[in-house]
Write a structure and sequence with these properties.
alpha/beta; Cobalt-precorrin-4 Transmethylase, domain 1; Methyltransferase, Cobalt-precorrin-4 Transmethylase, Domain 2; 3 domains; 5-stranded parallel sheet; 5-stranded mixed sheet; 10 strands
């Protein structure tokens, strides 16, 4: 078999579930988007930790999974962390799921995974649905380099401040947003990034009323205002990165090339950002690229 040929395994996790923490991605809307492996693991573990047991209960009922599900969310995870780690240390198997999608991606669970890793316990990913990846795959915007920002702050001033920090970011930007703030967030993006910046709104992915709208931010503002239905559901907003001026980019490359032999990447990026007024993240990425070329 050629060395570069992809290898696949049909390992049955249900035979090795003891003493493990399984991080299990669940469907983001369509219940059919769930793997056979995930079903078998949830059937075999001793406990399922669920963000909302009522929501996860629908999935478990659909696949006739009888395993006990216990509520585990941001308000009780610190309190219950030690108990669940001890369960795993004693040889029990635990699965962590969120309401929808891949756990820890804007969802609870990070302290548990971190603690398990720090104590040398087995942590096993079961990949599956993820809203940001699904949206990126059909957005029609550059996806070779992107940064995920999660949910923007609820208050306007803080939200605009965060967007200002991202104004000169050249990578594609990905945000999550709720039905209550989608209009305000897109309005702020148009104000900070400019109404002509290309963007995508992916609404209700994999669900019955899924919509994926590509336009500039001004067009997306109009699209949201055109129908009350466009404001319902869960959203992924993808915004094209800043198109850096070619001459400025060349100048910054020249400056960074002079700095890098004498200072580290982080310090070189900070100096270049202060000199140019550009974004520090942008300069850091450029400095890393130059460093790799040396």
């Amino acid at each position: 078999m050629p060395e570069n040929e992809q290898q696949f395994s049909s390992r049955n996790d249900s035979n090795s579930a003891s003493g493990s923490l399984y991080v299990v991605a669940t469907p983001i809307g369509n219940l059919d988007d769930f793997s056979q492996r995930a079903i078998e693991v949830l059937q075999s573990v001793d406990l399922i930790l669920a963000e909302d047991t009522r929501q996860t209960g629908k999935l478990l009922q659909h696949y006739s999974i009888k395993t006990q599900a216990r509520s585990y969310h941001q308000h009780n995870e610190a309190q219950l962390l030690g108990k669940h780690i001890e369960m795993i240390r004693e040889g029990k198997s635990v699965a962590l799921v969120s309401d929808a999608g891949t756990p820890l991606i804007s969802d609870p669970g990070f302290p548990l995974v971190r603690a398990a890793r720090q104590q040398g316990l087995r942590v096993v990913p079961l990949p599956g649905a993820c809203a940001l990846v699904a949206a990126l795959s059909v957005a029609g915007l550059p996806v070779s380099r992107f940064c995920f920002e999660g949910f923007l702050p609820a208050k306007k001033a803080a939200r605009q401040q965060q967007l200002q920090h991202l104004k000169n970011e050249t990578r594609t930007l990905v945000f999550y947003e709720s039905t209550h703030r989608i209009t305000a967030s897109v309005d702020d993006m148009a104000e900070v990034f400019g109404q002509d910046r290309r963007a995508v709104i992916a609404r209700e992915l994999t669900k019955t009323f899924e919509q994926i709208q590509l336009d500039d931010l001004a067009g997306l503002q109009a699209w949201l205002a055109s129908s009350a239905d466009h404001l319902k559901g869960e959203f992924v907003v993808i915004v094209d990165g800043s198109q850096a001026d070619t001459e400025d980019d060349a100048s910054m490359r020249e400056l960074l090339a002079l700095l890098l032999p004498h200072v580290g990447v982080k310090q070189a990026a900070q100096i270049a950002a202060e000199f140019s007024g550009g974004g520090r993240n942008q300069m850091y990425e450029l400095a890393l690229a130059l460093k790799s070329e040396q």
